[in-house]
Amino acid sequence: MKRFSAVMVVFAAFSAAAVSAVLDFQLQRQSTQAVSQEWHQHAHDARRTNYSPTPVPTPWRWKWMWGGQHRSLPRNVQPVTGGDYVYVADGSNGVRVLNKSNGAVARTLNPGGAINSTPAYDPETGLLYIMSNNGRLYKMNPATGANLGDYNTGAAVSVFAAPCLISGRAFIISGNNVIAVNTADMSMVWSYNAGPRYTPLLRIRRGRTRWSW
Questions:
Q1: Residue 5 resides in a domain
Q2: Would you say residue 1 lies in a domain?
Q3: Owning domain of residue 17
Q4: Residues near 3 by beta carbon (within 8 Å), at least 6 away in sequence
Q5: Is 178 helix (H, G, I), strand (E, B) or coil?
Q6: Are 134 and 113 within 8 A, CB to CB?
Q7: In the chain, how many domains are there?
Q8: pTM of the entire structure?
């Protein structure tokens, strides 16, 4: 059954050997930068804080709703925002691009497969990164609907696999592997085998690379 659900995670640090083998040290600097007030990716940011410092002034007023109360979405997905739009993963229907002002569907991005994980928006480029269950990470322009490239992991994705995005890198999971993808050319930077027991979801916290499950 598809539904919204909060994510509870437990964190474990990479071993020293694994960190020295795969850590892109650029991430240590980037992970300490100021947190954006927009909800650009799953759980708000690369640290997966599920927190935004943006105050919502009162009085609160109903503005719009999309989908209706009986519509179901893939488990654990969250809407994300960027530019003039709200982005919602809608399974086999792709990603819905909704106007922030009124909730109307501006377009639907359907690059291939089913989109069962929260996409990630890059505020530096205005591009959206979408992980499909067909094992491909797509880079798309949500303002035009253009598909600008993809990275093929070579294996189908059967679990929740929201990309973790930091400037210049998109971190994804495929099977037992955590993969860093260069967003400029959609090529693999490195891959780390986290082992068969857990499904890792990469996040960045206080200058350290960690995974959760």
A1: no
A2: no
A3: 13-46+72-212
A4: 72, 73, 75
A5: strand
A6: yes
A7: 1
A8: 0.80
The CATH code of the domain that includes 116 is: 2.130.10.10
The region that residue 116 occupies, defined by phi over 0 for left and psi between -120 and 50 for alpha, beta otherwise, is alpha
Write out pLDDT tens, residues 119-159: 999 999 999 999 999 999 999 999 999 999 999 999 999 88
Q: Which of 44, 46, 204, 184 is nearest to 127 (CA)?
A: 184
Structure tokens at 114: 């089913």
Contact 133, 158 (CB under 8 A): yes
C-alpha to C-alpha distance for 41 and 204, rounded to whole angstroms: 13
Q: What is the pLDDT of residues 155-187, one digit of tens each?
A: 999 888 999 998 799 999 998 889 999 999 999
60 in any annotated domain: no
| Exposure of 199 in the CB half-sphere (CA atoms within 13 A) | 11
Token code pair at residue 154:
């070579």
